[in-house]
Amino acid sequence: MQQDKRITLAWTGASGAPYGLRLLECLLAADYQVYLLISSAARVVLATEHGLKLPAGPEAAQAALAEHLHYQGDKLVVCGKEDWFSPVASGSAAPKKMVVCPCSAGTLASVAHGMSDNLLERAADVVLKERGQLLMVVRETPFSSLHLENMLKLSNLGATIMPAAPGFYHQPTSIEDLVDFMVARILDHLGVEQGLVPRWGYDHRT
Ligand SMILES: Cc1cc2nc3c(=O)[nH]c(=O)nc-3n(C[C@H](O)[C@H](O)[C@H](O)COP(=O)(O)O)c2cc1C
Asked: Does the Cβ of 41 fall within 6 Å of ligand 1?
């Protein structure tokens, strides 16, 4: 059977916009069709952390992102917050994999409680009900008991909680190295081939 190379990627208003951008870049490079959902707060964080100001409409944002990433393919689809006719809004058409990266405490709570109040929350709800793969790359510190409860609730429902917490054992020398560490772990979980960082154990033996 042919591999379903479609994925839903959501950017929310947690710190860590570079993770989301790099993940998008890698998924497009791996020839995935990416349905990208961007919360209002994510736009603010993207401008603050990366200096990238996206235009408001989904089509204009899609064009701006393609230009920023020098992407000339046709696999990037930016969806609007209330684009209820998007494939990601229905279990009959949605990709079976979704990553929320970075994931804010707010979106974590909304998804944990099935709010489905915008397309991003609805898409996550769909992946959960269809028993697909949902990765939540949560970023907050410290975590309150509420955050921890919401993470446990989602984990018990089958979602994978991946705190945005890069390791240092690959001896990073740049921010890009730290970003790639996280993105590599996410791609591994998604089953997308990557060679961003050396694998544990492989470069220590001769
Ligand atoms: C620059 C910036 C950084 C933020 N960092 C975080 C963060 O790391 N974690 C978090 O949960 N919220 C963070 N917030 C707050 C969220 O953006 C805010 O709670 C927002 O309502 C989340 O909405 P969303 O989940 O729809 O994106 C940050 C906000 C800004 C402007």
From this structure: yes
Average pLDDT, the chain: 96
What are the binding residues?
A: 13-15, 39, 104-107, 139, 169, 185
CATH number at residue 10: 3.40.50.1950
Q: Which of 11, 38, 104 to mutate to test the pocket of ligand 1 (most atoms within 8 A of CB)?
A: 104
Give residue 35's domain range: 6-190
- Stronger pLDDT, 3 or 27, i.e. the higher one: 27
Pinpoint the alpha helices (H) of the chain: 17-29, 40-50, 58-69, 105-112, 119-129, 145-156, 175-190
Q: Is residue 139 part of a domain?
A: yes
Q: pTM surpassing 0.90?
A: yes
pLDDT at 89 over 80: yes
